[in-house]
Design goal:
alpha+beta; MetI-like fold; 2 domains; six-stranded antiparallel sheet; 13 helices
């Protein structure tokens, strides 16, 4: 019985060739898919990072190697310390505030019948660019109540619940024995009880006078223990008239307080002008002299709002703009996690007697922890790179107080400094600060995917 001979060597050699050829094809296939992506990644990410690191060791012109000098300059510059301090404040305040607001909105709105409309309204600022949002907030927080809606609301509330002068900016007519000092309008010399003292004033626009004012009237002759007179606007619309004289067309200033001040500085009597600007201070001592004064409260500018865009409040305004924009993002992200939650756990807790706060703190919040961490870390990365709002909202005088690393990097490199060596060093600092948060996010994604 014959057997067919085999040649194992030739078979093995042919197998190796096939396997090698197949491996080569797989590598070519992988390279054809990954190659363009790796090329773009290298051109747009790796090369800029490497170039920025190298550029940070050169001088302003890029011609001379200066070693660590740019980093030394960066950490000995006051503006950089302000930027780092502000970035630290942003990291502490903004992500926490946005995450909390997003969590509250997501949990409370989940029980509303019109939750879709509410979420749309809250999320809508995300559709606005940072530049446009900055312009909106800069206009809203203008100091002048005629321009800024926030201060207009504040002034409106103050005018309703507080006393506000109707005659801001008033000043005495020169040459009639009346002087102004620290906002107080008073007689230059004492006035004896039983005399008449008028106050011709200027400086108040006719268009700003209350419509209820009537023409000034002469005060009746005072008694021996009284001082009377008229407080009036010594101006006639359209011009004309005699200075200091009470005439037709000159308005009496109603509601002005008038004090009788003794030689020791104490107020011995006061009155408030009525219709026609007439006042009568009673209860004075006959034969005594008093200095008649109109307190500054009658003529100050009244409620004018808050200087929100000053160095003291500018960071609050900018962070508020950021919260307004990103609260919708946090709400939508947390709401998506809330919709995927097992509601039977909450119902079981309520059945066991837990109130809503206990359900929220012991069931809802712990189950949402992974989503909250992702939102929080994402916001940290975002605020570390914040630029647009900080660049647009602060006016020129407040920009140094609101400075952050990204704005400082742009200013040093392109905004007049033209020092791209120092700007590259600031860019590396920003990269180093962002990397830990990015690594945490990547690890979180890997953990979620491995479950």
């Amino acid at each position: 019985m014959s057997r067919t001979a085999t040649v194992p060597v030739q078979i093995r050699g042919r197998g190796r060739g096939a396997r090698g050829h197949g491996r080569t094809r797989r590598w070519l296939l992988v390279a054809s898919f990954l190659g363009p992506g790796l090329l773009v990644l290298g051109a747009l990410v790796v090369y800029p990072i490497v170039y920025t690191v190298v550029r940070s060791f050169f001088d302003k012109s890029g011609a001379s190697f200066v070693g660590w000098q740019n980093y030394v300059t960066m950490f000995t510059n006051d503006t950089t310390f302000t930027a780092i301090r502000n970035n630290l404040m942003w990291v502490i305040v903004a992500p926490v505030t946005v995450t909390i607001i997003g969590l509250v909105f997501a949990v409370l709105v989940d029980k509303l019948g019109w939750k879709t409309a509410f979420r749309l309204i809250v999320f809508m600022p995300m559709a606005i660019s940072m530049l446009a949002a900055g312009v909106i907030f800069r206009g809203m927080f203008q100091e002048s109540p005629q321009l800024g809606v926030v201060n207009a609301a504040i002034v409106g509330v103050q005018s309703v619940f507080g006393d506000q002068s109707s005659y801001p900016g008033a000043k005495p007519r020169d040459g009639f024995g009346i002087e102004a000092e620290k906002g107080i309008i008073a007689t230059s010399a004492p006035v004896e009880a039983g005399a008449t003292q008028n106050f011709p004033l200027t400086g108040v626009k006719q268009s700003e006078l209350p419509e209820t004012l009537v023409d000034a009237e002469e005060a009746a002759g005072p008694g021996s223990t009284e001082i009377s007179g008229t407080v009036f606007l010594d101006v006639i619309r359209g011009g004309g008239g005699t200075d200091g004289e009470i005439e037709k067309g000159k308005k009496g200033l109603e509601g002005v307080r008038v004090d009788a001040v003794s030689a020791d500085g104490s107020i011995r009597g006061y009155a408030t002008t009525g219709a026609g600007g007439v006042y009568t201070i009673q209860g004075l001592e006959a034969g005594e002299s008093y200095r008649i004064a109109l307190p500054a409260a009658n003529f100050d500018a009244g409620a004018q709002g808050v200087s929100w865009l000053s160095a003291s409040f500018i960071n609050v305004v900018v962070i508020l703009a950021y919260v307004w924009i990103w609260a919708g993002f946090a709400m939508v992200m947390i709401a998506s996690g809330l919709s995927a939650m097992d509601r039977s756990l909450q119902e079981a807790a309520r059945t066991d007697g837990a109130n809503e706060w206990q359900v929220f703190t012991r069931i809802t919040a712990p189950l949402l922890a992974p989503v909250l961490v992702v939102v929080f870390v994402t916001l940290i990365i975002n605020v570390l790179k914040i630029f647009d709002l900080v660049y647009v909202i602060p006016p020129g005088a407040s920009k140094p107080a609101a400075n952050v690393i990204a704005v400082e990097m742009w200013t040093v490199s392109f905004g007049g400094g033209s020092n791209q060596g120092l700007g590259s060093a600031l860019a590396i600092l920003l990269l180093v600060l962002v990397l830990p948060s990015m690594i945490i996010n990547v690890r979180r994604f890997r953990e979620e995917r491995s479950r």
